[in-house]
Amino acid sequence: MWVNESPELEAVNLGGIFLPPFEQFAHFRCKLSLEFSTAGFLVKTASSTEEVIQALALRHQVFIENDQGHGIGYEYDQFDNDADHVLVIAKESNEVVATSRLLCSRFASQFYSQNEFDIEDVLNENKAYLEMGRSCIKITHRNANLVDLMWRAIGSYITRTQTKALFGLASVFTTDQSQAWELDAYFKTFFSDNRFNVMPKLAWQLDPAFRKSTYQFEDDTQCKKILPSLLRSYLMAGAKIYGDPALDRDFSCVDFFAYIDIDNMHRSFEKRYLS
Questions:
Q1: Helix, strand, coil % (nearest 5) of the chain?
Q2: CATH code of 141's domain
Q3: What residues contact 115, with CB distance under 8 A and at least 6 apart?
Q4: 135-188 residue pLDDT tens
């Protein structure tokens, strides 16, 4: 992860967002053009450097500032140039209020998930993959409507790229390792199987001393209240969680590797977003 918080750099004012001279995005190209509109929002893939920068600014606000909005900054890494960036733009303010980064195996050879997890067992199936990551919604717009718009865009992208598997890191914003192990047990009880051997890399592993020998859950709703809305939607779509969790100290969160086999996506999601 790289973070730029240098307002003293020469900058261009883009509707209130100041753009430092990010040379690495000067030649950004959209891989798959996608656009649709609703009464209040425009949903599209970023088609210019300026639009990518707006997505990076929202990511900084959500992931780095924890929604406090104290300053101007940009959260980015080496995968952003190879990705498409879904944007949800509020028409009234012309502001990007949600974004998600899509890395498709048709356009990229490496995935962010490989930083934290060994996923070779997944990639050995050699199919069309789509990694969804860096997904966030501005705090003032976190509702079911925005999640629905994000899924509509992702569903269209899946269809047009003929993606067969969707995966990514599902984050829960906690560094409490006891809570992380409890969530791990919850996912293994209700949302996992033995299809893939996935494990976090050594530097990301949690301390097993915080793990209890047994956990008890009455039903699959017990832990959902602490899960972010996007993660809940992954599970509703049919996601399976593989491997132990990874502790991401940079973002003060715990990451779970989530995988959706498109052919086995829940019927309601398939009908709504892939038809």
A1: 35, 30, 40
A2: 3.40.630.30
A3: 201
A4: 999 999 989 999 999 999 999 999 999 999 999 999 998 999 999 999 999 999
